[in-house]
């Protein structure tokens, strides 16, 4: 754990935070933070991680932050805008607005993720087409087939046969 703490502190210091600021933020003394073997509580680790995220996430495009959330929600079943927005600690309106700044829509991003996942799933010949459709959140195989044909110009079965 000490190595992780040292790496976190080094990253944050390279991002402009002083050791004193980091210690205060984590609820430690500067001496405690200076010792690599110090054990942080889960809440102290979380505070440092949140600080790291404030430095990393703005460097990513917003859509790159949303894509993995859509993928994860898709794997669990239906993707709901409100759930994705809640994970990002924002309203649906803000999510829509931030995507619009990149000339994207949530529906378009969801479709892109579905298409990418469909290609991945279809390369696995152990999955039936119905299973692929279900994994992608389609209510029926026919709805998936229509969408896939629109995306790729051929049916899922034709695509799989060509792989």
UniProtKB/TrEMBL annotation:
Keyword check for Flavoprotein: no
Listed InterPro entries: Homeodomain-like_sf, HTH_AraC, Tscrpt_reg_AraC-type_HTH
SUPFAM superfamilies, per the entry: Homeodomain-like
HTH araC/xylS-type domain: residues covered: 64-162
Keywords attached to this entry: DNA-binding, Transcription, Transcription regulation
Name of the protein in question: HTH araC/xylS-type domain-containing protein
Record organism: Marinobacter zhanjiangensis
